[in-house]
Amino acid sequence: MSAAVPVSITVRSASRLLCIEWDDSAVSELPHARLRARCRCAACTHAARRGDTPGDGADVTLTAVNAVADGGLNLVFSDGHGRGIYPWAYLREIGAA
Ligand SMILES: [Zn+2]
């Protein structure tokens, strides 16, 4: 597991990407809809188990990005959902998918 941490985080509204530049010089470009679909909060995890993926393929965009104390981001989406916490390692994993 990589212990990379971001050196820059940019939200691109037009292309609906969250761009993360890591300290090992890798770059992740994460579509907003993919981030929404991969939310791991209790409600989304439960929905996913039922085969219902929230926001998947939808016109959902990121509206806010908040740093969390233990190393990661809290993301808020245009559908009003903002409970998901995305640790750095998880963002890195989504970016590689
Ligand atoms: Zn969620």
Write a structural description.
The chain is an alpha+beta fold. The chain has one domain (6-96): NE0471 N-terminal domain-like. The chain contains three helices and six strands. The strands form two sheets. Strands 1-2-3 form a three-stranded antiparallel β-sheet. The protein has a three-stranded antiparallel β-sheet with strand order 4-5-6. It starts with 5 loop residues before the first strand and ends with a helix. Bound molecules: zinc ion. Zinc ion (ZN) binds at residues 39, 41, 43-44, 81, 83-84.
The helix content is 10-25%
Number of domains: 1
Beta-strand residue fraction: 35-45%
Which molecules are bound besides the chains?
A: zinc ion
Any idea what the radius of gyration is?
Answer: 13 Å
Overview in brief:
This protein is an alpha+beta fold and 97 residues long. 24% of the residues lie in helices and 35% in strands. The protein has 3 helices and 6 strands, in the order E-E-E-H-H-E-E-E-H.
